[in-house]
Amino acid sequence: MLFGGVALHAYESGLAHAIGVQCGPIGRTTSGFEYGTAVLCGGAAILFVKRYARLTAGVQRRFIDPFQYVRPEPSTKEVARWAASLHCLIGIALFFAMVGIAKEQIPGRFEVYVGMHGSLEMLLGWWVGGLTVLRFFWPKYPRGGSYTRDHAADARRTYHAELKTRGIIDER
Asked: Which of 15, 27, 64, 112 has its CB 3.0 to 4.6 Å from that of 23, i.e. a possible disulfide?
């Protein structure tokens, strides 16, 4: 829903066409360029929500959890209310930014109003689909860290301990 809603809104609001015009003759003459641009907008929305989940999980762990708990709590599967609310507000701002960019680039080309099919898809897609994607990624990130750093540090410690036991590294 997130992918399709953002892609449809990007196409119907004129954002995909405005990007095609900005790309010059290739964007204006290539068939399917607007569709491809709209698809890229949908994919970018999913990547944004993934990065947003990582960022908000870190913020939750660093700034909010210390005031709620004495000891660090294990990560929950539920998205914090503040993160979900901020996600919806970002979606509304993104909705109006996409419309504004499209209208500014191509005056008179598209008439955009909230009743359009793409607008409804964008709002529902960002709200329902975006929160679903956020709920999917939220428990995957340990709050305040990431998998790569944790795995790399564990691997380094294990390798160092192995070298010590074999006598390759002295403890001096």
From this structure: 27
